[in-house]
Amino acid sequence: MSGVEVTEFLALLALLLGGGMIGAGIMKKIKFPTIIGFILIGMIAGPYGLGIVDDVELINLLAELGIIILLFVVGLEFSLQKLRKAGIKAIIVGMSELSIMFFLAYVGAYSFGWTHLESLYLAGILSISSTAISLRIMRDLKLVKTKEFNTVITILIVEDLAAVLLLVILGNASAGAELDFTGVGILILQSLTFFVIALGLGIKLIPKLLEKIHGLNIPEGPFITALALGFGLAVLAHFLGQSSAIGAFIMGMIIASSKHSESITKKVLPLRDFFGVIFFVSIGMLVNINSIPAVVLISIPIAILAVVGKFVGNFFGASIGGHDVTGASTIGSVMVPRGEFSFIMAKQAVDSGAVRDSLYPVTMLVTLVTMFCMPLLLRIFPTLADKSSAIPMRILNPIHVVGRFFYNLMNTPDDNNQFTKMLKAHGPKFFVNLTIVIAILAVIDYFNDDMIMMINEIGIPLAIDPEILLTIISMLLIIYPVVAMLGKIEKLVTNISDVLSTKLIPADTKIIEEKPLHRLLRNIFFVGFILILIAIIQPYIGDIEFIPFLPFIISGIGLAFAIILIADSVFVFQKLSHGHIMDSLMKEDEESPHE
Fold first, then answer.
1. Are the C-beta atoms of residues 148 and 317 closer than 8 Å to each other?
2. Quick one: which of 227, 268, 285 has its CA closest to 63?
3. Can you tell me the mean pLDDT for 117-121?
4. How far is 558 from 326, CA to CA, in rounded Å?
5. 414: which residues sit within 8 A by CB, 6+ positions away?
6. Residue 96 in contact with residue 313, Cβ under 8 Å?
7. How far apart are CA 331 and CA 81, in angstroms?
8. Measured between alpha carbons, how far is residue 513 from residues 320, 399, 500, 509 in Å?
9. pLDDT grade for 4, boundaries at 50, 70 and 90
């Protein structure tokens, strides 16, 4: 670098850090997340704003470096022991909210006419909350010593792990692999192989290496070695076709298993803050402001979906975890903001060239909306920040009651045994049939071209196109396993209904209230099953040239059934709300104080 180039680089750093802090200070004054200030300053000063900084290549480099450092620190702070300590119930809470948001976002994006890959990317972008913002808000509200804080920590751990897996799988898919069942299976296998080998060898070797470095009595030795190892595995991951940021994350996880991890993490945190500011300001600079007006209309429904879906998903998950309405509303509100992982996914998607460029400004607008909405949600809903509610409680009660059903199912040791027996009785057969459905579609999809060629060569007279014939055969073949899965769901619902009826309904009204309870649970399970089935079938039928509108028909039919079941659930809930079940659940809320 020449003297002039060094001066320009230093000026850029001064602008990134100084400008970022000015923006953060303004946001702090008006009580909004400081990350908004970093992003807005970047948008104003960047090449698409005032043009104070116009070297897009250098901005990209700084953003990439920021991503690697951020994921390295996430790996350091991530621990499998934390997941084990949280327990299976807490993990179920995290997985339930993540699944709800992911499915809603995927179906929503696909209904807008986006491709499967774009829909999956948007689902990933909207599913992951901002760890930095959520934890900062909980600390600002002085909720660190509450069970709500512990639940938020667990959900964020689950989301971080899911985000890393999504980055790996979608990164390989966008690099050129065809996104069919076979391709996805191979990608998952490749990613898991790299993950397992790197993690397995690393946990055996790296702690011993750090121990030897520590023995040299060089104060900064373990810290510098940890950074070198993080950058080294990032480079290796890149050469092996994986994301370099994922390599840094894995090395962070490996170092977290060392007894020196705590001291290393303390020294890395200032580096994370430094590159965190650079990352968010750089991300703002990469947004083409001129493209924002063109994506405003599509961003509005996506933003509504992002806010509502994330709040409902976390509110429902927190209810399953045993929180009352106030605690569940608090968790739902603080988990709404998206942040670092959303930007990382959007950048990876656009840089690959496999998705539309508009995904980046859409992500930016939606993310900013979620950040601005979070303080408002804390005031609108009954939360630990403000227990008064600006909305009627009957809107939240149905979701809370359903969550309480599942909480009661898993609450006591006896119920755990019953729940385990139910899963063992019906779970394996359900997943066997699900695997059969996926296998049938995957095999026919894989050999589709060969079978069509064979039919044409033999000259078999057909009344319809061979591709349509194969599609019909596929649908006929999966009818039996689908019906079998519905039967298993019905049996599981019956067992759950029996357990909850015994626990929540007095004997004298059991006959009256048991049937509506069974109907409500059946509707909930069937809606989830419909969404899963649509997600499985859509990638297969999306490539049929002769019926390009078939995916929309399948989605429309599935969503119509889901809406009917949801409407019926609301009707049934109105019946239950006047019975003993509601009284039992609301009484438990009153008896469960916050820690």
1. no
2. 285
3. 85
4. 34
5. none
6. yes
7. 23
8. 22, 18, 11, 6
9. very low
- Residues 6+ positions from 352 with CB-CB distance below 8 Å: 171, 174, 175
Amino acid at 363: T
Place 79 in a pLDDT band, splitting at 50, 70 and 90: low
The C-alpha atoms of residue 15 and residue 90 are separated, in whole angstroms, by 43
SS3 content of the chain, % helix, strand, coil (to 5): 80, 0, 20
Structure confidence at residue 544 as a pLDDT band (50, 70, 90): low
Residues 6+ apart with CB under 8 A from 323: 147, 148, 151, 331, 592
Burial class (CB in 10 A: 0-12, 13-18, 19+), 539: buried
Mean pLDDT, range 439-466, rounded to an integer:
76
pLDDT above 80: residue 31: no
Dihedral of CA atoms 297, 299, 300, 304 in degrees, nearest 10, equals 160
Distances (CA, A) of 474 to 443, 555, 573: 10, 17, 38
Assess whether pLDDT exceeds 50 at residue 307.
yes
Query: CA-CA distance, 62 to 236, in Å (whole number)?
Result: 20
- Inter-residue contact 90 to 296 (CB < 8 Å): no
pLDDT of 269 higher than 90? no
Rounded CA gap, 238 and 561, in Å? 45
Kindly state the tokens that stand for 163. 């985000």
Sequence-separated (6 or more) residues with CB below 8 Å from residue 116: 110, 179, 538, 539, 542
Q: What is the pLDDT at residue 581?
A: 52
Which amino acid, one-letter code, is at 238?
Answer: H
Q: In three state form, how does the secondary structure of 264-284 look?
A: HHHHHHHHHHHHHHHHHHHHH
